[in-house]
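Q: What does the assembly look like in three dimensions?
Context provided by user:
Components: two
Sequences:
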Amino acid sequence: MLELRLVQGGLLKKVLESIKDLVNDANFDCSATGFSLQAMDSSQVAVVALLLRPEGFERYWCDRNISMGMNLNNMAKMLKCAGNDDIITLKAEDGSDTVTFMFESPTQDKIADFEMKLMDINSERLGFPEADYHAIVRMPSSEFARICKDLSSIGNTVVISVTKEGVRFSTRGDIGTANVVCRQNTAVDKPEEATIIEMNEPVSLTFGLRYMNSLTKATPLSNTVTLSLSSGLPAVVEYRIAEMGYIRFYLAPKIEE
Amino acid sequence: TQKQSTITSFFTKR
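A: Here is the predicted structure of the complete assembly.
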């Protein structure tokens, strides 16, 4: 059986809001490593990988590895019924085809349980080798989201280039072009406001803005975002979930035909 | 011209 009690229930709500538009159905895996998910979008352009480590839960009990197939839209509907400050507990009996979400208000004066049907999902997991990236950019997540949103009103694709100058986001469309350059900036009041650029080699990659904008739905999960880029390889866009784990998106680039 | 690549062309299934 499985019982996971998450005091910061709002976090699970945010996780679902950040992936439900990208992925329809996914297996949530529960093991000693943590509560995790790996799923691809229907066009096979993006993969989301989530890890919430056991230490982040007030109670993390799963006596064997369990994989639970869930429709993410349905799961999001259920989690929307939880308050942002609620404690959320996931429960599943061995061999059951349902999962129960229990929502407790912080003052314990309201307790709700929602039972959701599980589904069988055949999903193959991808192996992501450790890579040495040409460039790694860490910046405020809200700034990155703002840039992706702004550029998508001009064009459909974004070219992300890292040079000595900084990181450049460019687009081109029928009405014109747009370029946003962010330079390294560590002279900030709070560390999460810094832009840090580690460059081993200059790199330039093109991505669909529709996908980039979809990934930025994870912005409420973290003040910062990390972009790991290598020529000709998918980008890794990572939002760290404080003291618990991460949500990572692997996004395939556009390539020359 | 550019075309959209897929994730499965970069990473192998385990």
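Follow-up: Chain B touches chain A through 14 residues (CB under 8 Å).
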